[in-house]
Amino acid sequence: MHPTLKRIIFFTSIIAFWEIGSRLELWMPIILPSPTMVLNALVTGFEDKTLIYDLVASFKRLAIGLALSLLIGSALGVLLAKSKSADETIGTVILALQAVPSIVWLPLAIMWFGMNETSVIFVVVLGGTFVMTLNMRSGIKNVHPLYIKAAQTMGSKGWDLFVRVIFPASIPHVVTGARLAWAFCWRALMAGELLSTGPGLGYTLRFASDFGDMALVIGVMIIIGVIGYIVDQLIFQRVEKTVLKRWGLES
Amino acid sequence: MFIEINDIQKQFLDKDNKAINVLTNIDLKVEKGEFVSILGPSGCGKSTLLSIVAGLTKATSGEIIVNQSKVTKPGKDRGMVFQQAALFPWLNVLENVTFPLKKEMSKKEAENQAKKYLQMVQLSNYLHHYPHELSGGMQQRVAIARALAMNPDTLLMDEPFGALDEQTRSRLHGQLETIWTETKKTILFVTHSISESIKLSDRIIVMGTKPGTILQDIKVDLPRPREQYKKEMLEIEEHIMGYLKKEIDKVVSEELANASNT
């Protein structure tokens, strides 16, 4: 059976069971609203444009946060790969920070920047930076020595060697790092918005929850999941696959 | 003399910080345009020697002079071909071959130069292919074109055909011979294949192992192409085998001793 067909059957039966259960009042709508109610909440949200504003606001923060974390992460990664002292000092700190979910920085961020956009972006940046750092570092450390030797015999050295050989050779790790950074940033953003301020998808989620609008809560959860899936599967996985193939790391 | 290798010594430290002599008293002179093979069993330091000539490895003592200047670092006057093609996978064939030319000429000139050498290795139809789309033999031909494109006086080849199958290897031997006759490069060719060295070179430097030293310097005085001189080639092969047998036995008995110790 075709995988797509399998998926259609799977999702249809879940939604059908969910709808039928709601109609038969096996559970209360406040515990779990029916699919129709969720759909209605989504349609209303998009019609009065609140969800669209939320999406735009969330994506703006994500774009800024992710871009900053990729930049800072790459720079730190290069530093750790190139300097042994930095690796032995800053490297250890980063390994420790990597283990801390970035949302725990929110209280401090609110003290530093106030209850605003900047605090959320700060948490998003912290979410993606360290994983990017570690991937960039291992990308540069794992460049095949033969590439470097070959380039040296062709007169390449210093900055030229870095830009034309070492960095491009580490692209597969950069792509993996960016993919993970995106996933961490996305989670950090939702947590940050949930606990901080709006507009944004996370904020609307909490707003709906405060007013007991479970249909909208589930609607927003679905939007978050769908976006996460689309970006990961349709963008990052494809890029990663192309890169791995081109770089000869996968047949 | 075009290449002078003067009393090169190379020591490595093993994991107990004990010095191991990899190369001792290596003296070798090569004339301009000569095709010289360096032949020896694995572990005799022949690749290390080539790497020192390339400027990629520092010798413990001794000096290398190429075209009257002392070798201290890698340079474009010495093109190198490795056992693996070492092409950059993110560049296509044409971009790989123009890699060393970027700084000194315009894009157009670089591409024309690259195309000229790609034609020499018969890969004109693959300019826009990426390395992963080529066979091992084709990749190695691109690597040769890339080394030639910088127009070096010397070509250093470190077992360039070692990873290829017999038929491909024999075809590339023919191509390399043609290229050498056309371009008049000085070639230092490292190999462990006796027949390969006899087929291609003017001189064969036979090296022994532990420590790596030069055992013999053999002139091959056969007209090219050499396929028609099977009998003479066989005689030279047996002659060389005489020297190498002792060395190979030495390696084998040492490995056996090591194996029984552990």
TrEMBL record, chain A:
Record's bilayer topology term: Multi-pass membrane protein
Gene Ontology, cellular component aspect: plasma membrane
GO biological process, alphabetically ordered: transmembrane transport
Keywords: Cell membrane, Membrane, Transmembrane, Transmembrane helix, Transport
Domain ABC transmembrane type-1 per the UniProt entry, residue ranges: 55-235
Protein's UniProt keywords contain Transport: yes
Protein name: NitT/TauT family transport system permease protein
Organism encoding this protein: Mesobacillus persicus
Automatic annotation (TrEMBL), chain B:
Top-level EC class as recorded in UniProt: translocase
InterPro entries in the cross-refs: AAA+_ATPase, ABC_transporter-like_ATP-bd, ABC_transporter-like_CS, ABC_transporter_ATP-bind, P-loop_NTPase
Catalytic activity: a quaternary ammonium(out) + ATP + H2O = a quaternary ammonium(in) + ADP + phosphate + H(+)
Xref: SMART domains: AAA
Transmembrane segments: none
ABC transporter domain ranges (all copies): 3-234
MF terms in GO: ABC-type quaternary ammonium compound transporting activity; ATP binding; ATP hydrolysis activity
PROSITE patterns listed in its UniProt record: ABC_TRANSPORTER_1 (PS00211), ABC_TRANSPORTER_2 (PS50893)
Key words, A-Z: ATP-binding, Nucleotide-binding, Translocase, Transport
Superkingdom assignment: Bacteria
Enzyme Commission code: 7.6.2.9
Subunit structure: The complex is composed of two ATP-binding proteins (OpuCA), two transmembrane proteins (OpuCB and OpuCD) and a solute-binding protein (OpuCC).
Protein name: Carnitine transport ATP-binding protein OpuCA
Source organism of the structure: Mesobacillus persicus
Phylogenetic classification of the source organism: Bacteria, Bacillati, Bacillota, Bacilli, Bacillales
